[in-house]
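thought: user wants a sequence for this fold. calling inverse folding tool.
action: design(structure=
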């Protein structure tokens, strides 16, 4: 069984993340979504809220997904959970520099774990959780950015 590990903050999950997950599921039998919990990095939603939104958003492929929180290095999690690849999404060029560094650092830490990159549908390629939060803050229309459940949670946060 081929297992992929998809790490991120998912603060909150957007249609961009979901697009990456759907593409990865065409290659991997199972995906572990690793939600980063970093006390030094402030998030709008806590880990329980972020997991709950991912759970709702991925209800249709529940049998192929597992959601976990991260408390150590991504490569360590990958090894422990039997994942062969770290999955990441690429948007504009700006993602490349960071992903380039991370991939080589991870490779140095563990040669047996490789990284694999997907590009979203063009319509999501400009989308980030940060943009979504900014739009939510000013009460903008988020229907094309995130699933209804997530949009509702965002509205409640900024009420
Ligand atoms: P963000 O950068 O939006 O805060 P995360 O840390 O949750 O997102 O990102 C996890 C992974 O998902 C990263 O590899 C990121 O590049 C990717 N990703 C997030 N949004 C998109 C998108 N709209 N298109 C492609 N990849 C994306």
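)
observation: tool returned 159 residues.
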């Amino acid at each position: 069984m081929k297992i992929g590990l998809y790490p991120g903050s998912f603060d909150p999950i957007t249609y961009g993340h979901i697009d990456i997950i759907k593409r990865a599921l065409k290659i991997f039998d199972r995906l572990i979504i690793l939600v980063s919990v970093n006390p030094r990095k402030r998030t709008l939603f806590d880990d329980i809220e972020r997991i709950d939104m991912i759970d709702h958003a991925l209800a249709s492929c529940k049998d192929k997904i597992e959601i976990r929180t991260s408390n150590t290095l991504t490569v360590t999690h990958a090894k422990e959970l039997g994942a062969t690849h770290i999955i990441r999404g690429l948007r504009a060029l700006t993602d490349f520099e960071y992903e380039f560094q991370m991939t080589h650092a991870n490779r140095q830490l563990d040669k047996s774990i490789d990284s694999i990159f997907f590009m979203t549908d063009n319509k999501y390629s400009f989308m980030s959780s940060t943009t979504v939060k900014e739009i939510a803050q000013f009460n903008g229309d988020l229907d094309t950015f995130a699933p209804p459940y997530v949009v509702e949670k965002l509205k409640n946060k900024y009420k």
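thought: summarizing for user.
answer: Here is the designed sequence. Residues 8-10, 14, 16-17, 20, 88-89, 91, 95, 120, 124-125, 127-130 surround adenosine-5'-diphosphate (CB under 6 Å).
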